[in-house]
Amino acid sequence: MAIHTDLPIYKLAYELLSVTTDLIKNMPRDYRVAIGGTMREECVELTVLVFRANSARDKTPHLDKLLERVQVAELLFRLSRDKRLISTGQYAKAIAITDKIGRQANGWRKHSASSPVA
Question: Which intervals hold domain bAvd-like (predicted)?
Fold first, then answer.
């Protein structure tokens, strides 16, 4: 088992958290607390779920939750763009990262489903 902080998916989740933190600091206060706080919490949860999946024998439930959280994060980024709280370029950067996270999580899930649990 690799150290979770060395995994490419963890690095992407951390990058998303960093990007999100930068994006929400420029939001108006009421949106920063409501939407921005939820965005940050979802990104933190992504990193926690990477750790849990890496530690667990049965990775599938954690990876399913991770993929669900990616969808929620994407929804919040889209809402932020639609409300003009972030630019289209900022949105595109965040969505590119969530797309990479989703692809890696799906690949990890398929690999772990095909591997026998010891």
Answer: 14-110
